[in-house]
């Protein structure tokens, strides 16, 4: 399947002129390098556009008593994009962040302590929705042999094209990843039963043949736009050239990467060409009058 880890590794070898017969870079090492460059280079590159790449949210229903709420474990950098209060599916207000050293002068907001937010000085009114918006961590890339391509979908049963990996056991947490760009996670749940190549899931997924069943937080596809895939494979090829001590090839590779990055910026941002963002004054006094 194009753009899976097999394809990515072949592209890295082609770009770095890495011989197939060499023993320095194993498939496992290629996958590790792909993950490193994906998370430390490509994802931050996309987030820098401020075009809502990898943004999701988690909601809590306020009880009028609780003041502390955890930052989600899968938040990139354990940080939030925004904290807001909702009522009847409409944003009630965006909550300002407070400086812990200046709480004596604060009348409404939240501050951060370790990996949680704390509302101050009072909890949020009961039945209002607290929404934590954050950048989620992309799934780890894995070899295609550690996942299964779906061939048939029938209710809660999915039949794989090949025998499932040994990690697909009863009770395992899994997810189904789309085989189409941008390779989003379509379903999450757990395995109920394994019978040959047929996997029974704990609910019926709305997915299609050729999508992939993976363990939770894993994928055979990089969750990035197709336009960024050459950047990912080029970045790993540069790492290979660095390991091989090919300084000339590394310099040429870095120049090529910079050209790719420049072209990607023109292609990916802004996300909507025909509409200009409307700037709102989030800090006007009326927003914080209770």
State the gist of this model.
The protein contains four helices and 15 strands. The chain has 290 residues and is an alpha+beta fold. β12 and β13 form a beta hairpin.
Describe the protein in words:
By secondary structure, the protein is of the alpha+beta class. Helix content is 24%, strand content 27%. It contains four helices and 15 strands. It has helices at residues 5-16, 27-47, 229-243, 247-268; strands spanning 55-61, 68-70, 82-87, 90-94, 109-113, 116-120, 129-135, 140-141, 148-154, 157-160, 173-177, 185-195, 198-201, 212-215, 218-219. The longest helix is centred in the last third of the chain and has 22 residues, at 247-268. It is globular, with a radius of gyration of 23 Å. 24% of the residues are buried. The model has no long low-confidence stretch (mean pLDDT 91).
Annotation field: number of helices: 4
Class derived from helix and strand content: alpha+beta
Q: In one word, what is the shape?
A: globular
| Straight-line N-to-C gap | 55 Å
- Oligomer state of the chains in this structure: single chain
The low-confidence runs, each spanning 5 or more residues with pLDDT under 50, are: none
Describe the strand arrangement of the main beta sheet, using strand numbers.
Answer: 9-10-13-12-11-14
Mean pLDDT: 91
- Characterize the main sheet: 6 strands, antiparallel, barrel
Helix content: 10-25%
- The tally of beta strands, per DSSP, is 15
Q: Please give the radius of gyration in angstroms.
A: 23 Å
Q: β content, as a range?
A: 25-35%
Topology pattern, helix = H, strand = E = HHEEEEEEEEEEEEEEEHH
